[in-house]
């Protein structure tokens, strides 16, 4: 029996297929996922660095167990809810890779008191002081990593600001635990081609390696030097001085990653299954029940060379139609049309027919759903359901 809300005690009927699922729903091609994981893991193993996968996209212990190197981790999370959920399933080695808010330190302390090695991230004196105070109050040294700004994209200590870096390091070393330095090359999502991605990767590496050296030269510990983004993880040529790589969306990939050349469309493992519910033939539209509530409003390809609208449309086996996209979306309606400027033709889809829609942003689309329906390759058979969660 199929349940919209996944019940772990319930097993799918043997006849559950893509033809019988309630739509819209989230589909995961396990073959594509496994290939994506193997691709990056083999690459990093060959470079002598460990992978600390970011689980913010997956939010599923079933996916996590396939991408982590061991049941205990290591892993990266973006919310304390993720840390709590994965800890309940036995994950013990995690970095909470979002700047720590002082009010959240009580939850960090609780997890650490349960034997979870949860590390926080920060980039200000105020945060460092809050972590040191929480450490004193709890009678434990909370480990923290200093975030380094490698490209001006978002957060982090500017590498040239040696005084701030050392002051934060001294506060943590004295009152908490200085675990190391961390950065994220957010600018790599702009694309720019292979040469530019290699440049982003090297800038990312140098920023944290130099920061780590500065801390050590001042007599401060820096055991962990962590970098991470899916684009740079696939383009770095030299990871000397780096101890680990964090990446997340590589497990599933998406149209944004395809648009900047990190993967091919055929590598994208996630899709939304939708049903045709009508036509506006004079407008060149096919209407489905896959609106933005199931696809998300993310328009991440809008600034790329190829605008994929709200998603690229595929047949039921997962093969993309030429230049057929979800051109617009309302809450529960998706409008399929030919990409502007193309001379492609709409597929002949009747009311009741089904399509699969590849997401612009895997994280945003997956967040709209509570279950992965797992298939393999072009098979219509749904092998199992893996629950996923949300929240903070």
The tally of domains stands at 2
Q: Would you identify the CATH architecture of the largest domain?
A: Alpha-Beta Barrel
Mean pLDDT: 95
DSSP strand tally: 17
State the name of the first-level CATH class of the largest domain: Alpha Beta
Please state the structural category: alpha/beta
Large-scale geometry: elongated
Q: What's the alpha carbon Rg, rounded to whole Å?
A: 22 Å
**Biggest β-sheet description:** 8 strands, parallel
Share of helix among residues?
25-40%
Helix count equals 11
Strand order of the largest sheet: 2-9-8-7-6-5-4-3
Low-confidence stretches: 1-10
State the order of secondary-structure elements, H for helix, E for strand. Answer: EHEHEHEHEHEHEHEHEHEEHEEEEHEE
CATH topology of the largest domain: TIM Barrel
Q: How far apart, in Å, are the first and last alpha carbons?
A: 31 Å
Q: Kindly estimate the percentage of residues that lie in beta strands according to DSSP.
A: 15-25%
Q: Write out the CATH superfamily name of the largest domain.
A: Alanine racemase
Family: Belongs to the DSD1 family.
GO biological process, one term: D-serine catabolic process
GO molecular function, one term: D-serine ammonia-lyase activity
Protein name: D-serine deaminase-like pyridoxal phosphate-dependent protein
């Amino acid at each position: 029996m199929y349940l919209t809300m996944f019940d772990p005690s319930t097993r799918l009927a043997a006849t559950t297929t893509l033809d019988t699922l309630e739509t819209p729903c989230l589909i995961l091609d396990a073959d594509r996922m496994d290939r994506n994981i193997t691709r990056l893991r083999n690459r990093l193993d060959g470079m002598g660095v460990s992978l600390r996968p970011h689980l913010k996209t997956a939010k599923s212990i079933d996916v996590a167990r396939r991408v982590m190197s061991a049941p205990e981790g290591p892993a990266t999370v973006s919310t304390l809810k993720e840390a709590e959920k994965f800890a309940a399933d036995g994950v013990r080695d995690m970095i909470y890779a979002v700047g720590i808010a002082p009010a959240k330190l009580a939850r960090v302390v609780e997890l650490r008191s349960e034997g979870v090695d949860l590390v926080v991230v920060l980039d200000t004196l105020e945060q460092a002081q809050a972590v040191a105070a929480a450490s004193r109050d709890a009678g434990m040294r909370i480990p923290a990593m200093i975030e380094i700004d490698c490209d001006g994209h978002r957060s982090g200590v500017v590498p040239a600001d040696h005084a701030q870096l050392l002051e934060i390091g001294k506060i943590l070393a004295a009152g908490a635990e200085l675990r190391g330095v961390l950065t994220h090359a957010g600018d790599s999502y702009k694309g720019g081609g292979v040469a530019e991605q290699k440049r982003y990767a090297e800038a990312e590496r140098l920023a944290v390696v130099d920061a780590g050296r500065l801390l050590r030269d001042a007599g401060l510990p820096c055991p962990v030097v962590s970098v991470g983004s899916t684009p740079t993880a696939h383009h770095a040529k030299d990871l000397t001085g780096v101890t680990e790589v964090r990446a997340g969306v590589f497990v599933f990939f998406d149209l944004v990653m395809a648009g900047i050349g990190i993967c091919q469309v055929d590598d994208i493992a996630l899709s939304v299954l939708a049903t045709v519910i009508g036509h506006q033939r004079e407008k060149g539209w096919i209407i489905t029940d896959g609106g933005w509530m199931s696809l998300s409003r993310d328009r991440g390809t809008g600034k790329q060379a190829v605008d994929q609208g709200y998603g690229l449309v595929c047949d039921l086996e997962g093969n993309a139609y030429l230049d057929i996209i979800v051109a617009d979306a309302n809450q529960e309606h998706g409008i399929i049309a030919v990409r502007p400027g193309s001379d492609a033709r709409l597929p002949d889809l009747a009311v009741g027919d089904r399509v699969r829609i590849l997401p612009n942003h895997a994280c945003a689309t997956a967040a709209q759903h509570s279950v992965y329906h797992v298939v393999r390759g072009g098979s219509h058979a749904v092998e199992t359901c893996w629950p996923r969660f949300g929240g903070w």
